[in-house]
């Protein structure tokens, strides 16, 4: 690290668990973020500020005025622009040392898998089950840890699925794709603005832990938040040996 980096990341370096070695791991890391919206916004900003060297933003949507209530990666001047371009510009303001790759398209599972293979960690901030399952399958195939988050109305959830850990379930183990789950969207149900900030910031925290090897990630635990009461509930999740996605791994 140069002098500017030592100063920029000095508060990280002061942490005994992180130090210079951990910061260097962040600088060498590549985080792939699926969705540059409510969850991806705080996650991307905190990962960039923390010094993750390369970030890939994937989103096919453009910024809409209704997004600005919670998607802090964007501002009024971003309305009508692709979210990934707006996000790239904002990250450059936060930390110009971060390389930001953008994909303004709806990528298929094969593309997701190829992209995941080059990532250190994947963060899923998408808003539908089809994408979440596709991202999960891509991460299992690529052998890359996945930090999954969701938020709707006043309820949020977060977990980590790490195929490198033999005991870790994958997203399919907990939410099987062939079981009907009601598809709900914040466009019709609403979402509390700071809720996505809480969950997205936690996703960034879990990603940093996975990159640096500090602490204990949320593997095998689904954390659920009721923001109305600010109460957390933990559901312990075991791997399903019959899982269609990860059941064959050793």
Automatic annotation (TrEMBL):
GO cellular component: cytosol
Any GO molecular function: ATP binding
The THIF-type NAD/FAD binding fold domain, residue ranges: 9-245
The protein's Enzyme Commission number: 2.7.7.80
Gene3D superfamilies assigned: NAD(P)-binding Rossmann-like Domain
InterPro entries: ThiF/MoeB/HesA (IPR045886), ThiF_NAD_FAD-bd (IPR000594), Ubiquitin-activating_enz (IPR035985)
Family annotation (SUPFAM superfamilies): Activating enzymes of the ubiquitin-like proteins
A Pfam family this chain is assigned to: ThiF
Family, similarity comment: Belongs to the HesA/MoeB/ThiF family.
Self-association and partners: Homodimer. Forms a stable heterotetrameric complex of 2 MoeB and 2 MoaD during adenylation of MoaD.
Name recorded for this polypeptide: Molybdopterin-synthase adenylyltransferase
Organism: Pandoraea terrigena
